[in-house]
Amino acid sequence: MIAELGLAMLWLASALALLQLVAGALALTKRGRELAGIVRPAAVIQGVLSAGSFLALIALFLRTDLSVKLVATNSHSLKPFIFKLAGTWGNHEGSMLLWVTVMAMAGGFIALFERRLRDDTMLATLAGQAFVSLGFYAFLLLSSNPFERLAVPPPEGNGLNPLLQDIGLAFHPPTLYLGYVGLSIAFSFAIGALVTRDVGPAFARAMRPWVLGAWIFLSLGITAGSYWAYYELGWGGWWFWDPVENASLMPWLAATALLHSSTVLAARNALRAWTVMLGVVAFSMSMIGTFLVRSGILTSVHAFAVDPERGSFILALLAIYIGGALALFATRAATITEGARFAVTSREAALVVNNVMLSAILGIVLLGTLYPLLTEAFGEKVSVGPPYFNPIGAIFFVPMLIVMAIGPMLRWRDDRAGRISGKLALPALAAALTALGLVSFAPTIKPLPFLGMALAAGLAVASVLPLVGRDLRRTPLPVYGMVVAHLGIAVALFGVGSDSAFSIEKLVASRAGESHKVGPWQVTLRSIEPVAGPNWTALEATLAATYDGGRLSLLRTQSRNFTTPPQLTNESALHTRWNGQLYVVLGEEADDGRWQLRLWWKPFVPMIWYGGLLVGLGGLLALIGRVARDMKRSRAEDKIAYRRARQGR
Amino acid sequence: MSAIKPKHQRLVLLTIALVALIGAGLLAAWALRNQAAYFYVPADIVADPPEAGRAVRLGGMVEKGSIKTAPDGVTIDFVVEDGKARVPVRFRGITPDLFIEGSGVVAEGRMEPGGRFVADNLLAKHDENYVPREMAEMTKAQATATVAETR
């Protein structure tokens, strides 16, 4: 009954999306103007219905209703509660339902609260949003129905991929999806503004909170995914340039560029065509990411089901939306009048450099990700990894970091280089001192980590300088947000540099009682014993570690054997200190009774994820600041309107 | 600092952006040709070996009875074969869970001057759903080859 209810709500929601599109489009014409009144309510009800549909699916998973095909193939009655819940979106159909739900709810939200846009732009935006949603409703209902029933329910479900049975991962997909879908809203705004030729500061201000929100979720999602790969895969790395990772990085790069260019548009009414273009590109990257990950073109834990029909469906959606938006842009670009002008030394110019560099990096990542697919079409199999991405990306990343340090201190419109050169001495000094320290204490350091750590030190100092000499209590929250986010990039970069320069790895075969030295650590294997969990059994190694002869800490690492579905995973053991992490993985037993152990000492590696969290926090501060100011302003406007109405009476 | 001549500002910005993006594209294309790791099967390696030290991937079957662990307990030597040729491989590290004799493997690494392949990383089947892209096809091709041979 619940499944049928969920399906019915999904069909109704898609019908409302169709209504929203048709009414919205007709309301833009002279004759259909009366239809304008139903567009907003349609968007709100559509949001409520799809949310109901998603709740129905959650209910089915929590009850482990095995008569539903999706539950039977992805869940298991013995799974812990949290993974039953996460199982709802830990599969293709459920995750697509989550996608449309978030999209529809965001549309409903705009319909309820967005008041800044011109009425016709608002209608065009909601119609555009419905147009995008419709494609995904069709995809769900026609080729990936999550509520499909089985004629004969099996006695027990198949379970969830053990690699995904992890608390961090339970919330990784929804986080990324919120980011992807937030960009779909930016896309709808761009379409709306293009249709009504209304590209201006109001459009940028309406779009910005959505871009900010999407960007926060993408930043956090990428950080969480990277940490998951780090401790769950047991390879000691935190970023592999895997196509699946790139699929989340590309929308982030585009969103970062869009965030900065929309700030220029909102504050200075410049970079108009460019911002609209980025709005289109950012969501295109989300769709390309989804296509790469879900089509089965790439094999990974993310490719839930390899089904050519679905791949072609997503590809068709991709072609329609990206192609259509680009065509619209091409026909309207000439009508977007040029924005306000600015000088070569100005905040705008620095943000232009930032945007160009981010776009270049985006292009490099995109080419590197698609290249293996292209060559395979010609019969040559290649893979592209760090030797390509790291140096080529750095060529554009390094100038971007330098501009990132300088830009926030420049004034809008026009500035003199002489005014800020004194302020720049401090970050330059920090970078130089770090460089000097590295050269004297680690003369064999490689160029990229060296450059990264020196620049990180300079950027860290430069990022807090915009606060110097300001009245801190009167400084707007978005400024704090920028400072914190830029600082986060510096912190993460320092961790990246330190990890690649100073990590120490040791691979040993060890008997119980034997002791091994890894950097400053002395690690002793104490015992190996079998243990059991709710749906797995494991061998657990207990190790005792001392740092520099100090206090003893115990670490436990497991080699887990899952029963449903049968699979082995390595659970790494981590011990975190302020200055780094000790990382241990248990391998196999050799013939002579010794156990393989892989030990790492990774100085300052957690800074990578602390940095990522700071970036997200910075975004959150900016978002709170913007939303609070918008609310204040709209309340003030309401008051004025009310007073005028009373006086008029 | 003086502003750019107003009339040309849009043109100048557009040119800068285009030059940077095209530059990035050309640079990427050049780097991809040089840095992409090509995929080899043992027959390719024997027929036309890649230069020593260049990052490549080697895919094939782990030959039955070929896995040997060195006395240090963590270095293993084995042979990858594809029915036509054999390539000796050395790997130091923890092998993936489904790395077993007679099963498929993709080794990432480089050829040594002596004709041995040194692997930095081994990819084996994770589970039924996660097979390295090259291997999925390779095993199919090999299955058909085996069927043809036994006939």
Please supply descriptive tags for the structure shown above.
heterodimer; A: 649 residues; alpha+beta; 5-stranded antiparallel sheet; 4-stranded antiparallel sheet; 18 helices; 12% strand; B: 151 residues; OB fold (Dihydrolipoamide Acetyltransferase, E2P); 2 domains; 34% helix; disordered C terminus
Can you describe this structure?
The complex is a heterodimer of chains A (649) and B (151). Chain A is of the alpha+beta class. Among the domains of chain A are: 1-159; 418-451 and 459-502 and 608-649; 504-603. Chain A has 18 helices and 10 strands. Chain A has helices at 2-27, 39-62, 69-74, 81-87, 92-113, 119-143, 167-170, 172-195, 201-232, 243-268, 272-294, 308-332, 347-377, 386-406, 417-441, 447-464, 477-502, 607-648; strands spanning 382-383, 504-510, 515-518, 521-532, 536-547, 552-562, 567-571, 573-577, 580-589, 595-603. A 5-stranded antiparallel β-sheet of chain A has the order 3-4-5-6-7, with no helix packed on it. Chain A has a 4-stranded antiparallel β-sheet with strand order 2-10-9-8, covered by helices on one side. In chain A, β4 and β5 (536-547) form a beta hairpin. Mean pLDDT of chain A is 89; it is low at 299-305. By secondary structure, chain B is α+β, with helices and mostly antiparallel strands. Chain B folds into 2 domains: 6-35; 38-150, Beta Barrel (OB fold (Dihydrolipoamide Acetyltransferase, E2P)). Chain B has helices at residues 9-35, 42-47, 133-150, and strands at residues 37-40, 56-62, 68-69, 75-81, 86-92, 104-111, 117-123. Chain B has a 5-stranded mixed β-barrel with strand order 2-4-5-7-6. Chain B is elongated, with a radius of gyration of 23 Å. The N and C termini of chain B lie far apart (82 Å). The chains are: A alpha+beta (649), B alpha+beta (151). The interface between A and B is large, with 65 and 49 residues.
